[in-house]
Design a protein that fits this description.
Organism: Dendryphion nanum
Pfam family, one: Zn_clus
Shape: globular
Subcellular location: Nucleus
Strand order of the largest sheet: 1-2
Helix content: 40-55%
Radius of gyration: 31 Å
Strand content: under 5%
Main location: nucleus
Number of helices: 31
Protein name: C6 zinc finger domain-containing protein
Length: 748
């Protein structure tokens, strides 16, 4: 068979000239060329398949010439009908060469051979989450399959043009394939060699220790009875899901029923999707950590077991994700599990690691194209709604973390997903915003969160404190307008309608606390300066009013039998810090000093009742140390002490850097309190001065939490750690103190 040159209308070439043989493209594979045998000129070729060498079959790099840059020679029988089809064929051949790894036999842990591969039914990804009304087999709920036909070119029905994603983004796809990453989710399993692990490393670095929950057998032991699992799921659906909306309740219930009925509730079952098990543990952890004490006891969990299981279940969530290699095997389950875990992570002391997992979940969601679920996205209603809900939650958590990282991962400019639909799960019918549904709270909070990246961009574009403060005032007004004019009626102080869901009163208080905290976060970079610079008096008044609102609502929360949300504790600690800083910058004779101190002491009294919360533990410790300084101020003790000095006008100034350094030194495990100083402290206690020591106020059963969580030891803390930029003087005392209270109050 002779070779003939192919004319390319879009390329410059001499169609009538004879092509030099040295520039002719070889179609035979490298192995056949080396053996000097006839090759079928396919990848893999017939000879390599017969020899069992299909995994190494491919063209030599020197023999490949891109049809875009040179004239490709093809036998007449292999000639494509058009130049565009020829380019597509070339790119597919290149992809086939780079995708040889999946065809290689790789020994893996049998327990990890689950068939889940979620895809979004749009141009680039499909979520195979079954609709409750779908006639498909129940097994499809937990086990997903991929269809090789999905890689075929797609034809636009209207124009008849090929819309293959290979042609649309060929260069990027090839580059990402070379890296072992996926540019477009439509191309299924593409992983780097190091991602394939042998059985000896399938469990990672985890040991067989019972305490580390690394074994699937240990994970099985952590599961309570099916009755208790359903109690936890039911309560989460009724009392917590409105707050985060990270999963679709009907689908999750169907998956749980299948797990217990068809898979016997056995985690070791090879067909069980470990990423879904991670979601199950995440849901149970949130319920156990957030339920009132009386409700947990009704479920059969006493205090000691509750504190143990809540931490073990959270660890099990991460263990399941790691065992499933969730950063390689991308599914929406990992995004749902991590987003749901936020509600318990902060209280249990896992704030630092949770922020890392959220970043991973965000990238996974983008790889699944959850950020491109616009109005024209393909897929059924339930599938698209599930993707939009978890994406909206990831956006909110990322943007609410901006004040603490001074950056964000999700740029609103590069997302086209619509917000979740305001609908009930049982019918999915869109309703007016005035009607409360399971998505109502998250929808409105997402609107508030969207302000934060705009504020950050505005602040970073300014060069002077004056223009930066203009941005603060601008977005302060924007948030106030949104909270007053756009707030749904059921989240206002209007009379409660008996037909509304039970969560509406809890949502009102949560929104009041969260929106007040967001006002503080908008002013955060000028808050420290507001205590000394009259130019920022508006910031001081605003933050004091917001702090009082937070504590007022927190007092009402504890009187209700609702869920214990971490924002109640975290934001009340932040509010108390502001009130104490205000006292330390006032004359002791002012009436506000006594008022603010009483509010802080009321808050600490509530925090002492929080038995399973690292936020409360850290908050009590820090607020107690600040109260010592306040007591010295109110008692007229003007002698030089930790972080305090007399100004020229006679008022007492408080040095936050000095306090932070002294506080860290005192909390060092190796720190020895001088005898004279201890005597002064004992004397102050005898005189009734409020001195709060964490070891005296934290129950003994919390001692192990201090060592098991991913917190930073104060003695090991770098006292020169960087804080977010301040307003004028480069020292943001408020955020320094927040850092000490809880290293990242990162999410809403």
């Amino acid at each position: 068979m002779s070779d003939h040159p192919i004319s390319r209308p879009n390329l410059t070439m001499a169609s009538d000239s004879t092509v030099n043989a040295s520039t002719r493209t070889r179609l035979a594979c490298a192995s056949c060329t080396r053996r000097k045998v006839k090759c079928s000129k396919t990848i893999p070729c017939t000879n390599c398949v017969r020899r069992g060498e299909q995994s190494t079959c491919g063209l030599s790099c020197d023999d490949v010439a891109s049809p875009v840059h040179s004239t490709s020679l093809r036998p007449p029988s292999a000639r494509p009908p058009s130049s565009r089809d020829q380019e597509l064929e070339y790119f597919r051949r290149k992809i086939a060469e780079l995708e040889k790894i999946p065809s290689m036999p790789v020994p893996v842990d049998p327990t990890l051979q689950y068939s889940d591969r979620e895809q979004m039914h749009n141009a680039s990804a499909r979520l195979t989450v079954q609709s409750p009304s779908s006639p498909s087999s129940p097994s499809n709920i937990v086990e997903e399959t991929t269809d090789a036909s999905n890689n075929q070119p797609q034809v636009d029905q209207a124009s008849g043009e090929i819309t293959d994603v290979v042609a649309q983004d060929a260069a990027s796809i090839l580059e990402f394939l070379a890296w072992g990453r996926r540019k477009d989710p439509e191309y299924h399993t593409v992983v780097s060699p190091e991602a394939h692990h042998h059985e000896s490393t399938a469990t990672g670095a985890a040991s067989d220790s019972f305490d580390e929950c690394s074994s699937l057998h240990v994970l099985q032991l952590l599961l309570p009875s099916p009755r208790q699992v359903w109690l936890l799921i039911d309560w989460h659906e009724e009392c917590l899901l409105w707050y985060h909306g990270s999963y679709f309740a009907p689908t999750f219930r169907a998956q749980t029923e299948f797990f217990f009925s068809k898979q016997s509730g056995i985690i070791q079952n090879p067909s069980v999707n470990l990423q879904w098990v991670a979601l199950l543990f995440s849901v149970m952890t949130a319920s156990l950590a957030c339920a009132p004490q009386s409700r947990a006891q009704q479920w059969g969990f006493r205090d000691a077991e509750r504190e143990t299981l809540s931490k073990r279940w959270f660890q099990a969530t991460i263990t399941c994700l790691n065992r499933a290699d969730y950063t390689t095997n991308l599914t929406i389950f990992s995004c749902q599990a991590i987003a749901t875990a936020t509600i318990s992570a902060h209280m249990l002391g896992y704030s630092n690691s949770q922020s890392i997992h959220l970043a991973a979940a965000t990238r996974i969601a983008q790889s699944l194209a959850l950020h491109r679920l616009g109005a024209d996205a393909r897929g059924n209603t339930v599938e698209k709604e599930i993707g939009r809900r978890v994406w909206a939650q990831l956006c909110s958590q990322d943007w609410f973390g901006i004040p603490f990282s001074e950056s964000y991962l999700i740029n609103p400019l590069y997302m086209t997903s619509e917000p979740p639909t305001n609908c009930h799960d049982h019918d999915m019918v869109e309703l007016p915003t005035r009607i409360p549904t399971i998505t109502s709270y998250c929808r409105f909070l997402h609107d508030i969160a969207a302000i934060m990246p705009q504020l950050q961009d505005g602040l970073m574009s300014c060069n002077t404190p004056y223009t930066r403060y203009e941005q603060v005032l601008k977005w302060d007004k924007c948030l106030r307008t949104l909270s007053i004019q756009e707030r749904p009626i059921f989240l206002t102080n209007s009379p409660l309608d008996p037909t509304w869901p039970s969560w509406v009163p809890w949502g009102r208080r949560a929104l009041a606390i969260s929106s007040s905290h967001k006002i503080i976060m908008i002013h955060r970079s000028f808050l420290s300066d507001s205590f000394t610079n009259p130019a920022f008096a508006f910031t001081r008044r605003t933050c004091l009013a917001a702090s009082k609102t937070i504590i007022k609502e927190y007092k009402c929360v504890v009187e209700e039998d609702g869920p214990i949300l971490w924002i109640h504790q975290a934001f009340s600690v932040a509010a108390s810090i502001i009130l104490l800083l205000d006292i330390l910058h006032r004359d002791p004779s002012e009436t506000e000093c006594a008022e603010h101190r009483q509010l802080v002491e009321d808050t600490m009294k509530i925090l002492r009742t929080c038995r399973n919360s690292m936020i409360a533990t850290r908050g009590i410790d820090l607020l107690g140390a600040l109260l010592v300084e306040v007591s010295k101020t109110l008692n007229g003790d003007i002698t030089t002490s930790q972080g305090r000095k007399r100004a020229r006008d006679g008022s007492i100034k408080f040095s936050v850097p000095a306090f932070v350094k002294g506080f860290c030194v005192e909390k060092s495990p190796n720190h020895q309190v001088p005898h004279s100083r201890q005597a002064r402290q004992d004397n102050q206690n005898a005189q009734g001065t409020t001195v709060v020591c964490a070891e005296q106020n934290v129950p003994g059963h919390m001692a192990h939490v201090m060592t098991q969580s991913d917190q930073m030891e104060f003695g090991q803390m770098d006292l020169n750690f960087a804080f977010p930029p301040a307003g004028l003087d480069g020292t943001n005392g408020f955020e320094n103190l927040l850092y000490l209270a809880n290293h990242d109050f990162a999410m809403f």
